[in-house]
Q: What sequence folds into this?
């Protein structure tokens, strides 16, 4: 998973939204792969494949610059990987909720 964070960092530094999205999806797939629920893992992985195959770019839903949006998403993913590494369930669940519910227009510090 760390290699995907590094790839995301490289994409942020290079202002490459397509590379960021690909690293983002690979990170999500790796997280799904470690799930103890094989059925949900399989469904999630297949959904990621479907979404990725149809995604051409990522755009924030506000006037926030794309670079800031991508940097925020990267920071959120890095914090989630840290929580998973530390087996910090509460923090991981909080970050997952934030990941799934924070619209791009509200992104600011992650």
A:
């Amino acid at each position: 998973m760390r290699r995907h964070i590094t790839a995301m960092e490289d994409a942020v530094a290079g202002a490459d939204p397509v590379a960021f999205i690909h690293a983002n999806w690979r990170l999500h797939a790796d997280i799904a792969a470690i799930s103890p629920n094989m059925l949900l893992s399989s469904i999630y992985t297949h959904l990621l494949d479907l979404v990725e195959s149809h995604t051409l770019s990522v755009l924030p839903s506000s006037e926030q610059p794309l670079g800031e949006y991508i940097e925020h998403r990267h920071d959120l993913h890095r914090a989630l990987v840290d929580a998973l590494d530390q087996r910090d369930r509460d923090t991981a669940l909080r970050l997952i909720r934030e990941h799934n519910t924070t619209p791009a227009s509200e992104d600011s510090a992650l």
About this structure: The longest helix spans residues 66-85. The two ends are 18 Å apart (CA to CA). Residues 104-110 have pLDDT under 50 and may be disordered. Residues 102 and 108 are 10 Å apart (CA to CA).
